[in-house]
Amino acid sequence: MTPLDPTPDPLLADPLVLYGETFASRLLLGTSRYPSPSILQAAVQRARPAMLTASLRRQNLGSTATPNRFWQLLADLAVPVLPNTAGCHSVAELITTAHMAREVFATDWIKLELIGDDYTLQPDTLNMVAAASQLIHDGFKVLPYCTDDLVLCQRLVDVGCQALMPWAAPIGTGKGPINPYALKTLRARLKVPMIVDAGLGLPSHAAQVMEWGFDGVLLNTAVALANDPVRMAGAFAAATLAGRDAFLAGTMTEKDAAEPSTPVLGMPFWHQA
């Protein structure tokens, strides 16, 4: 028997493309709340993410006595860093933070985070478009963390955002997609790459949104606070790939009535009675 040809690596055959740049993985990982730097390092090595998010506020900019160990860890991992503007409450604060992050991390990539409510950490949907427009004017590749509001997302695309990061649920809740209708509508109406960010708690959540046609997922808490973050990082990486494969394969149409999967053609008459 002739052996089957080896299956091509799906990560190489189906890359994630953002702002004209390609990434082998469709999983992005956050870098906070891990039990230790060594566990963070092992989780990243297990998941092989496209990018690592990091906040400028994690950097000890005022210290010159010792090198920043966190920054050195990120550099050693050799994974592209996506700085974010976490903790910003105004457009002016966000713009300043983004420019500082560009200097510290030496990258034009920025994850736009603008807090509108301190309790839910819901993004400020009223001022986000103006912030994104200014950052794009300043030469940033902007990935806005936003809600699943279709009109907001369309406005962000209109001002030049080539990718979006809608939430599945409020950040850190682990509830999974709480409004499937809104997310599916968003995916159907907008053609830019979209990475589901925030609220995913289980690998099955990641697989689900990938099955709906989303282009990637961004995780932090679900991995960092797992009993075994390294194993969970691998589980999310596998689930993300499985969901993408399912979307590309095309899932069956859901039906209300049972339908036999085994054909009865040619079976004895008494089996068909």
What does this molecule look like?
By secondary structure, this protein is of the alpha/beta class. It has one domain: TIM Barrel (Alpha-Beta Barrel). It contains eleven helices and ten strands. It has helices spanning 10-13, 37-47, 69-77, 91-105, 128-137, 150-158, 180-189, 203-211, 221-224, 229-249, 269-272, and strands at 16-18, 21-23, 27-29, 51-55, 81-84, 109-112, 141-146, 165-166, 195-197, 216-219. It has a five-stranded parallel beta sheet with strand order 5-4-3-10-9. Strands 6-7-8 form a three-stranded parallel beta sheet. A two-stranded antiparallel ribbon has the order 1-2. Helix 3 links the parallel strand 4 (51-55) and strand 5 (81-84). Residues 1-6 and 60-67 have low confidence and may be disordered. The active site is at residue 111. It is found in: Cytoplasm.
